[in-house]
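User: Run a structure prediction on this.
Assistant: Running it now.
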Amino acid sequence: MAPFLTPTPIINGFKEKVESLLIQGDRLYIGTSTGNLHIYSVDGRSATLLEVKQNLFRRAIEQLGFVKEINSLVVLSESLVTLYPLPTLHPPTALPKTKSAFSFAVHSSVQHTLVDGSKPDEGDFDKAGKAKTVPTVVSYLAVGCKRKVVVYSWKDGEPEEPKETVLDHSARTMTFVNDETICLGYPHPDFAMFNVTTMTVVDFTFPPTASTSVPGISNVSVGKGIGMGAISGLGGYIGLGAKVKPQVVRINDNEVLVGRDNAGIFFGLDGKPSRPSNVEWPAIPDEIGYVRPYIFSALPPGSTSVSSLTSTSPTSPAAVHIRSSIFSSDTQSQLIPFPFDPSHAKAAPEQYVIRVLVSAPQAKSPLLAVTTPTDRTTASTEGSSIWRFEMKPWGEQIDELVAAGAYSDALALVNSLEEALLPDKSSRISLIRGLNAVSKFAAGEYDVAMDTFIELDINPAKVVALYPEPVAGRLSVPQDAWIHLFGGPQVSDNVSATEPKEDKHDGSNASQSDSVSPSRVMSPVGSISNIRDKLKTGLDAIRPSFAKDDDTASISGKRKAPIKDEFTRSVETLLRYLSDRRPKVGGALGAFHITPAQSHQIEALSKASVEDLFDLPNLPLSALTPDQLVRYAQIVDTALFKSYLIVRPGLIGALCRVENWCEVTEVEEVLRSRQKYAELIDLYHGKKMHDKALDLLRSLSEQEDDVRDKLQPSITYLQRLGPEYMQLILQSSQWLLTVDPGMALEVFTCEEPELPREPIADFLEGIDPQICARYLEHLIEEREEESPIFHDRLADLYLSMTLAAKKRNDEKTWRVPYAKLLRFIETTDRYQTDRLFGHLPNDDLYEARAILLGRLGRHVHALELYVYRLQDYMNAEEYCKRIYLPDSDTEDIFLSLLRIYLQPTVKTSANLLLPALDLIRRHSPRLDPVESLNLLPPLVTTQDVRKFLMDALRAPVFDTQVVREISKARNEQISRTLMALQSKRVKITDTRMCPQCHKRLGNSVIAVHAPRGEVTHYQCREAFSQKLGGKRH
């Protein structure tokens, strides 16, 4: 990937030696070695000379800068820093404290300070987390002088008192890292961090010298050190023997890159290395620069060699190496002259030296570089050129990395950019992470890939498509189309974007093209490039067989654990992915009240095209529509089913028995081929495909000899169906009824679920009335059915079967239903009696007619049928017993039967006197004696009715009459005695004495004693009564 376009010259033929550059807005300032200042106007890729300040200084202008707050140009020359206001550059202001200056650094930022100018601490924040601060524009100008540093500052354009501090060394290079920290480059090889607020210094701690491999650069081989050409290239125009300038560039607010010999080391603010790996160059770079996130290094001539040059070429040209600071790898190299064409290189090509003079990591301006021929004559005639390195758009860079398969690098680049620079950052991150996961999957890192798929909510159809047809079915996609499926570029026939890339590189194979270098050469990880060969198409061929070699065959007595092949590992990882997705998709569908039980009402997965399934969005489940969620569920469960078939066949049954969204058409043939009929039947049942399940059960029954083994599976399945499948139940039970009606009837007699009874009765009656009668008997006897409809129907069935058998003169057959009819009409009263009576023939089935006449209250007619038609005297008596009830309308039923016997209403040849006498003997208490005697014929002797007469005399009615008469006579006697007593009188005179106390009675209360009428005082009555009693005894 080449992040920069081919450099374009904005100035050619510059005759003076360039010492410093500054681009500010649309102005380019060039400081020369003779002290002149050239001012250009820059418009796009061209520059126009505006003005030349001749002899601004007597010596070289070593460094240029700009302080925005005071709109002044900062110039370092003659070891002194001078400020020149723009645009007039007059009057200059020399900073006297900067004498013996070596370098300076300028930094401007907006800082939030308190009203008094101090920085806020934790106590200065309000409840909302905002500090009570004032935004202030702060600019710093830090100047590195001889063993000291001087800091000038401005706040909102107002100058502050300069500060200075003593250093151990002189700062030859200075770079601001953040608002408070400056990286100081001392004379080789020391560096330090300086804090402008606390004025403290932290020296760098360099790691032990170590060699780090550098990734290769296309078509360029990197040398091991500085060659002879490099040494010769240092002479000529720029002078020989110059000291190496400390190299340091800012990477971010917390990190810098410092050059030490031919290595670039990343350091943090604490002065310690911040990364485990370094950046190594083939030679010590003349200068390094930085345009986020790329590191530029200007390598001298002779540090590289181009393979296409002739063997007589003494040195290779100078080059600019560009590498990313994110993944520390070479991304591009530019050889001088720009553009470099190795095919036109001479045996002794012209040599140039390049200096990266403008590197503004915090600005949007491009990087500028100056190239100068090393030959003095050429330099004086041709002069120097200033080149503009322009970066490609961020989106184009990312697309190139993706096209090259460098997904980790592309992801690192995207993460380093702000939303303002890359508006579609979020979507790009998701896309690149998905592509990287595909690459990881191809490399055998299945768990890592699946974790990413889960985190990104990748469409499960695309995840399943990474597998061969035994798992993915029609969704399976060839490996060379994986990247395109996941949103990546279309892969050419000879390039596999899923070829895994290494993050570490070997610098021994570095090579380089003329002006742009392609993406890094990636090395495959593991032997998985032919993963499709491993994922075979047949289920029987998915696990490769391993032949034992001689060494293995010689080892006996030890069993080694089986090693899982790549395909099995990948499928087990897929199971983890599907097991994670399944409950979550189910929960999301539950929010819409959609369950797998409704899967038969939803369009099958096979009806959707592969393109439609791949077009399902990669969104969180909560953001999907119900239709999209259903497709997700169908894909997940179907893939889960197929995965179980391959690696965990024991779990297939459990999946089939629970509600699922499996696509039956994609798994049923596999189940049939594996003879997993029970699982297939469970799957059919869950998908409401009951007709297929019943057809399969019927075909399997043909393999059984035992009747129960043949029929029971179908019966059990039919018993699980509800009333909504009534028609299917009736159709599928026909063949069962023909084989064994008794067993088949279990389909309709099970308690759950409750099936509509009337259609079943109609269906069974159409097949065989006897089966229908058995079904109705079950309803009435076992299920306690009380509806008259079924009672009438059963009675009609009994009657019709009886009449049909009689019509066939089948004596043995008709008696069974007739006996059931009699028992039924006698033991229940839920049927319509008059209706059934109307269906009976007038000249047959007299017993049934008699029972029904009794139900209608016509007991005499019923008894006449028993006596005259059936001559069944015992049943007649039993009939009377059943209905007899004292003090009711039926208390004279036995007398009615006796009257039927003794006073026949029809002519009969039977002798009815004997059953009449038997009735009198057995039931005399229930017969009225007088009425019964009146019915007896005159020739009946007393001896024939002796027992009846004896019982009649002992009957309670006679005993009651005697007691009544005796009680009446006794009451009359007592009444007469009372009247006699009440008619007696006692006369009390003045002379009458009390027989007890012998005192005169007078007007005292008296008592009269029976029976002779003695009179005593009332108080003497008890004593006198005792006295009379003693005399009586």
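Residues 210-242, 308-313, 500-561 have pLDDT under 50 and may be disordered.
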